[in-house]
Amino acid sequence: MMKFRWIIDRLAGKSMYLTVIAVNSILFIILISLFLKAYPILIQKTAVDLFLSTSWHPMKNEFGFYSFIIGTLEVTFMAMFIATPLSIFSAIYLSEYAGKRLKEIIVLVIDLLAAIPSVVYGLIGVILIVPSVKIMGQSIGYNTTGYCLLSGGIILAIMVLPVIISISVEVLNSIPFEAREASIALGATKWETIKYVLIKQGMGGMFAAIILGFTRALGETMAVLMVTGNVSNISLSIFDPVYTLPGLIANNYGEMMSIPLYSSALMLASLILFFVVAIFSIFARIILAKIEKV
């Protein structure tokens, strides 16, 4: 009987080990597949032509990704600039101030927001956000259609709010109640307790939540595609249109594949997006490791 249980334990351990290897292998399979598809354009074009050029003319075999990379980063950072303070303060309120009944209602609404498809967010952006941004821009003397960087940032911020809030609330709730009592017993106010105890202890978890929201925003496609205008140029104002890498892929893949290098160029766009997400994720892990050591 003992031997049989030992065999079952060994099989379970090995099967889980193989499962972990299989899951992690998916990352390398994706990377290799994208690289092989993008290889034709990599050997025919220089890095300067691909990554530092803004000229995107597939009919002329010109594939400059610079404006798309900048557009992707601009929209993502705009979204995080809006979403991060709102998410953190909302999480603090839900964790420390909201009553039980109110908290249940708000958490339910946040869960519903997380479940809404991105195309619905895109439609909401077209109906509500784009006209509002157009009026805002024109009121300060800027001629804009409303399909711009600011509209994309706002809709993305709304989309990442549920992710950051939910994780941040869980992080704050995981901090022992005794830490709050000890701080208040020493004469600290509620806000001082939140500022110097809860935020300090939960900083690593909340930072991880922000990075998770950031990577979600970085790869978002449909909603951003519908509200940013999709013009290949460098945006110098929040009211200028932008074009993101996910939008480029979604808009063009499957069309005009007879053009030399077009398919390879779009695969390279996917590879660039892959590396951008990977770089920021690694950077976040390094910062998180430093925070946890403090």
Describe this structure in words.
The protein has 294 residues and is mainly α. It is built from eleven helices and two strands. It has helices spanning 2-44, 47-51, 66-96, 100-115, 118-139, 149-173, 177-185, 190-218, 222-227, 245-252, 262-293, and strands at residues 56-57, 62-63. It has a two-stranded antiparallel ribbon. Strand 1 (56-57) and strand 2 (62-63) form a beta hairpin. Helix 4 packs across helix 6 and helix 10 packs antiparallel against helix 11. The relative contact order is 0.14. The model has no long low-confidence stretch (mean pLDDT 84).
Task: Give keywords.
two-stranded antiparallel sheet; globular; mainly alpha; 11 helices; 77% helix; 294 residues
